[in-house]
Amino acid sequence: MRRVWQYVALVAYVVFLAFPLLWLLSTALKTPQEMALTDPTWIPREPTLANFGDAFGEQDLVGASVRSLVVALFASVITVAISLPAAYAMARHRSLINKIAIGWVLVSQVFPFILIIIPLFMILRDLDLVNTLPGLVVVHVTFTLPFALWMLQGYVRAVPRELEEAASVDGAGRLRSIVSVVAPLLAPGVVATLLFSFISSWNEFMFALVILQDPEVMTLPLTLVRFTGPEGVARLGPLAAASLMATIPSLIFFAIIQRRLKSGLMAGAVKG
Amino acid sequence: MTATVTRPAPPRKPRPARRGISRETRELWVLMLPAMVPVLLFSVGPLLYGIGLAFTDARNTRVHETEFVGLENFTRLLGDEDFWASFQIGAIWSVSVTVLQFLAALGLALLLNEKLRFSGLARVLSVVPWAMPPVVIGLMWKLVYHPDAGVLNGLLGTDINWLADFSLALPAIIVVGIWAGMPQTTVVLLAGLQNVPKELYEAGAMDGAGTWRRFWNITLPQLRPVIVAITSLDFVWNINQFGLVYVLTQGGPGGRTRLPMLFAYEEAFRYRMAGYASMLGLAMAIVVLAVLGLYLWRQMREAK
């Protein structure tokens, strides 16, 4: 009897979690005529992929995707490039900086974004970076950095120090031992951090909303939001199609790291 | 683009290497510097600047002489009815989303821990909201709630404009908040459940404790640190929520879903009242810290 109730509860959860997703999919595959029906249907009678094509015509989605891709690529590569040395330092020398860095990760969570974004907007305006993609890259790097640093130093810590020492006993220089011993072991961690930074930037909305006001430079989340407004029913199909496409990079990322999620990422003890 | 990141000098330069400083310390600074410069310049700096702005009449325009006004913004905030309305909505939103999200996630985590059949499907589904861009989550639920083409009115046979209804808009976005935030909480609680030593349950079963007693006397106390950590984080994330609700309702109808951050955003970027909006942010930060401090202090005292 207990089992029965457990299954009932499990089904309820599955329904709650899945039904908005299925509806999004269903909407993306419907024709405008079917959308206008008073009694909405779950399974489209004449499934169509036309919405995906229309989505590209409605707004500058191709341009927005390219801009999002460029911003996310630059932001993730720069984030990892500058946090890798720092992560190495943090993992190898236990010092006060360590505690300060962790402290900052926590503080940056508590303070509301408005307190940072107003002055940041003013600073970027003075640097003529408002309404530019480099401006957004700078902001994304800054705000992904603390967490990327935290992730990376966990990976560095997992590489035994003895390996480095062994290499130097064998006559390898310090740099040499880092490049040929630490780097290969660190590669999976670096890739995971790159992916994490990429997705954070790809999904980010708030800073982009403030910094990019000109439709010509808007990233994908902003362009998607511009789809809505006083819209007619006919535009919902393309909107749903575009939303699905915007989710693809994140889905790929989560498919890759899914197995590690449970143990590693959340506990902070990330394993390479 | 790298040049723009590193060009301006940091506000606080590292002390020049004195003779007493070891090679190791110098190396530490060199390695840390590339990461510290952007954080200091674009996040610590602005944060301090923002706290300063809260005590001025700064406008978000180029042509305005900013003056120090002391606590004037704060007294104005206390007398601002719109702020109090927004504050109340923020409190209802963040407390109810945090609590309901926790209860829902705890239930799901317990079920997933039971190793039922098909729990793989639920496990994957419970991670999906995490993988979606917040904007897409908002748009997706707009489609669900859509008065004409939405599935909800179709299912219930109603004709309600959920997100535009004065009394239903807030509950409607709370449901979205729960849906969006459940994954993290579930994953964390599940990890916590799997770390509870099996021996405790065996000992409990030997003593004849039923399911409910085992849950109350073993699972919950063992999970306590995890619960405290995740509910604190959820609360902070929820009270600072912006994107999801901005996409869903933009704070409407008639300000019924205008969370404090949406209010501050409007003040800062629509009415250009930078100083006032900063004070609002500062006040919210203090409230959050106070609530969090009280909560953590009580939990620690009870744990002893």
Describe the structure.
The complex is a heterodimer of chains A (272) and B (304). Chain A has 272 residues and is mainly alpha-helical. Helices cover 78% and strands 0% of the residues of chain A. In chain A, helix 3 (50-58) packs across helix 12 (236-267), helix 4 runs parallel beside helix 7 and helix 4 crosses helix 11. The radius of gyration of chain A is 23 Å and the shape is globular. The two termini of chain A are 43 Å apart. Chain B folds into two domains: 2-53, no CATH class; 80-303, MetI-like (MetI-like fold). Chain B has helices at residues 2-6, 23-53, 72-78, 81-113, 119-131, 134-145, 151-156, 169-194, 198-206, 211-239, 243-248, 260-269, 274-303. Chain B starts with a helix and ends with a helix. Mean pLDDT of chain B is 84; it is low at 1-10. Classes of the chains: A mainly alpha (272), B mainly alpha (304). Chains A and B meet through helix 1, helix 4, helix 5, helix 6 and helix 7 of A and helix 1, helix 2, helix 4, helix 5 and helix 6 of B.
- Taken from the alpha-carbon principal axes, the silhouette of chain A is globular
Counted by DSSP, the helix tally of chain A is 12
Round the Cα radius of gyration of chain B to an integer and report it. 24 Å
User: Which CATH top level class of the largest domain in chain B fits?
Assistant: Mainly Alpha
CATH architecture of the largest domain in chain B: Orthogonal Bundle
The poorly predicted ranges of chain B are 1-10
| Number of discrete domains of chain A | 2
Mean pLDDT of chain B: 84
How would you sum up the major sheet of chain A? none
Biggest interface between chains: A-B, 94 and 101 residues
CATH homologous superfamily assignment of the largest domain in chain A? MetI-like
